[in-house]
Amino acid sequence: MWELIQSNKRKSWALFLIMGSFLLFMGFLIGEFYFEGGGVFGIIISSIIWIIFSTISYFGGSSIILGISNAQEVSKKVHPQLFNIVEEMTIASNLNKMPKIYIINDVSPNAFATGRNPENSSIAVTAGLLGKLNRDELQGVVAHEMSHIVNRDVMFMTFAGVMLGAIVIISDVFLRSLWMGGGSRSRYGKKSGGGQAQLILMIVSVLFAILGPIFAQLLYFAISRKREYLADASAVRLTRYPEGLASALEKISGDVNALQKAYKATSGMYIVNPLHKQGMSVTDISSTHPPISERIRILRSITGGAAFIDYQLAYAKIKGKTEKIIPDSVISQKEKVEQKTLQNTFKIDSDPKDIQRQIGNIMMLANKYLFISCTCGLKLKIPPDFGKDSVECPKCHTINKLPENDIKVAMDIISEAEI
Q1: Catalytic residue status for 392
Q2: Which of 76, 105, 322, 324 is deepest in the core (most CB within 10 A)?
Q3: pTM for this structure?
C-alpha cells in the first residue's frame, strides 16, 4: 500500500502543477493582452490567486465543503451502527485516527469523504443512505470513502477543485470584460507596427481562455475516474465482500430523489455523481465518475478473492483493456484475500413509509432533536430550541420532564437491528 499511496501523491502533485501552469500561462496572456509588457503582472496576479485559493483550501476547504453540503457532525448516539462500521474500516485501513462523522439532512442516498490528510478527515453520509441501505451495503460505501482517505484522494480532490475553480474564474472575468468592451486594443497598432500582432494575441488569449478550463477540467475528470475505480478496488479489499458495494451503488444510482445541496464543485467527491439526478446530462468524457453500470459489473465479476489483483482481472474482463488501475508494485506482492461468505445479513426492503419515517428520525437526531417516550407509549420529538424543561403529552396530557444537555435516543425507533 505504501507504493500505491506514494504513486497517488506524485500524481496529485503533477496534476496540481499542470493546472497551476495553466493558471499562470492564462494570467500571462491576459496581462499581455491588456498592457504592453503586462504578462509579468498577469503572472503575479494569477500567482496571488493561486496562493490564496490553495491556502483557503488546505486549512478550511473541508469545513467549507461540509458547510455548503448541509452536513452536521454527529455523535455515536445518533447512529451507533454507522459509528461501528467506520470504526471497523478505520482498523482495517490501519489508520491512526478515526475520521469525523457527518450526516447530511437529505433523503437522497449518497456519501463523500473530505479532509487534507488521514489525521484531519471526515466522512459524510446522507440520512437517505442510512435509511435505505442494509449493513453490508453501508459498509461497502464507508469502505469506498475510507479508501479515498487512505489513498490521499481527498487532498487531491480539494486542491484540483481549487485550481479548476481559479482557472474558470479568471477565464470568465476575461471573457466578460471583452464582451463589455474592455482591453487596450490600440497599443499594438501604435507601438508594434500594426494591428496584426494585437489580433493574433487576442485570438490566442480568447482561445486559451475558452479551451484552457476545458482541458484542465478533462484532465481532472480523467484522473478522478481512475481514482473511483481504485477506491472500489480498495473497498473490496477492506470489506472482502464485493456484492455489498455493488448493491449499494445499484440502490444509490436507482434512487429517484435529487440531492438538494449538489454543486459542480463538490459533485466529484460523492460516491455517485449527484448531478445526474438533477437532470444534468454528464457524458462519459466530462464526468467525474465512470459509468455506474460498469462499476457494478466489475464488482460482480470478481471471483476467487478480494485482493487488488482480483479487481484488476475483473476490470480487464469488463473493460476489455489491459490498462492498469492497480500499480504493478502492488500487484507484484501477490496478496491473497479471501472473500467473506454470505451470512444472510441482507434484509427485505421495509415499507416505503417506514423508510421515510426512519430517515426523518435520523435527520431530526442529526439536528439535535430530543426523543422521549411518554408513559402512554407516544414518542415525542422535541426540537433543540424548545426552550422549556418539560412538555405535555398531547395524547394523555402527562407532563414529561426533559433531560438536561443530552440527546436521549429511543432505541425502539432507531436501533442497530432496524437500520
Answers
A1: no
A2: 105
A3: 0.77
